[in-house]
Amino acid sequence: MGAMNLRLTLCPRAIEDRATAPADSLPLAGGPRHFAACEAVLREAGQERAREVVAVADLGAWAARFGAETAAEAEALRARLSAPRPPFAGLDLAAPRGQPRIMGVINVTPDSFSDGGDRFDTGRAVADGLAMVEAGAAILDVGGESTRPGSAPVDAQEELRRVLPVVRGLAGAGALVSIDSRRAPVAAAALDAGARVINDVTAFEHDPDGLALAAERGAPVVLMHMQGEPGTMQADPRYDDAALDIYDYLEGRVAACEAAGIARADIAVDPGIGFGKTVTHNLEILNRMALYQGLGCAVVLGVSRKRFIGKLSRGETPKQRQPGSLAAGLAGIARGVQILRVHDVAETIQALALWRAIEDPGRDRERGMS
User: Fold this and answer.
1) Which of 128, 238, 277, 279 is the most exposed place for a label (fewest CB within 10 A)?
2) Residue 149 and residue 293 in one domain
3) Is the per-residue pLDDT at 230 higher than 90?
4) How distant is the alpha carbon of residue 265 from its chain centre?
5) pLDDT value at 206 more than 50
6) Which residues on adjacent β-strands are paired with residue 16?
């Protein structure tokens, strides 16, 4: 068969801080992490034909063995993997020095898995959100429907009743707000109330009207992968290759957004850790998070307080999973994640500051610290 039937993906490997990376390495999404090799996977009609770790300097020659079209695809992927990400919702994702942005979680629900009921009161939700901004959150993600495993849908009017006062309060105080909803009417009302980003856990498959809404309003979007529905998504989820299957899905949803008139610069992708995935699937995805930079979009990661942390540890409750959340979040950032969605903003900011200082000690010298 011809090269046109071959499909190539590249997952950056040998990722280091630029201070220690080889001279021929490339910047990961234009940030401070560099990669010197890629895991190249070539598939044909869904079947794997080749999988090999290839030095970036040798990638062109390796791909050329499979034809000119595969070589051109390799060059396009390498360019997307290394190009700086444009601003997202007005946030400069390249500054300062590749510092990732923190998205604070504001669940206005009585039944979310980690903090259900904590912020069901509007005043408490707004106050906590503004405290997150003070602690360093760049975005506040407001949701009024729990999508935890086994959860039941919430009536749209109840979802609106929960989120709109909180969105108004936070946006009115100057915060950048995203609305976490899978319903276009809820997202529309939230945008009217001051939200600026739509975060859809179904990547606009639950309510396709959200695509036209985002395009018409010029609202940046976050596309998340979820296998199945919240009520059933943990009932024996299966993948041929979890990381690659999710890459293919997100690539298709990015294409759907662009076809609807949403610019790629206004699209962020989220592999949906814990949404229709086993512990093994989650670990496979986290290990290969740099793969998703090949989509040319900002990458969002939400691991905060997720169930798999307790399963890998000692069965801790959600609020006891902060250390594991920090570890998983930093692993994602080490693989190029630009936006980290968390419950514990101040703690994450502190962990990130220490991690960056250790990875790049020259940064402190530039600041005049001693």
Assistant:
1) 238
2) yes
3) no
4) 14
5) yes
6) 34
Question: Do 67 and 202 fall within a single domain?
Answer: no
Residues 235 and 353 in one domain: yes
For residue 115, the number of C-alpha atoms closer than 13 Å in the C-beta half-sphere is: 23
132-166 tens-digit pLDDT: 999 999 999 999 998 767 667 889 999 999 999 99
The whole-model pTM stands at: 0.94
Count: domains in the chain? 2
Domain that holds residue 306: 101-357
Rounded to whole angstroms, how far apart are CA atoms 99 and 331? 14
Tokens describing residue 210: 């959200």
Mean pLDDT across the stretch 180-199? Answer: 98
Assess whether 175 and 45 both reside in one domain: no
Q: Please, which residues bridge with residue 47 across strands?
A: 44
Q: Annotated catalytic sites, by residue?
A: 306, 341
pLDDT in tens, 249-267: 999 999 999 999 999 999 9
The predicted pLDDT at position 2 comes to 43
**Cα–Cα distance between 149 and 5 in angstroms, integer?**
37
Mind giving me the DSSP string for 79-118? HHHHSPPPPBTTB-TTTTTTPPEEEEEEE--S--TTTTTT
Q: Spell out the residues 6+ positions from residue 370 whose beta carbon is closer than 8 angstroms to its own.
A: none
Q: Which DSSP state fits 218? A: T
**Shared-domain flag, residues 144 and 23:** no
The alpha carbon of residue 159 and the mean position of all alpha carbons in its chain are separated, in whole angstroms, by 24
Mean pLDDT of the 233-256 span: 95
pLDDT at 1: 36
* Element at 239 (helix H, strand E): none
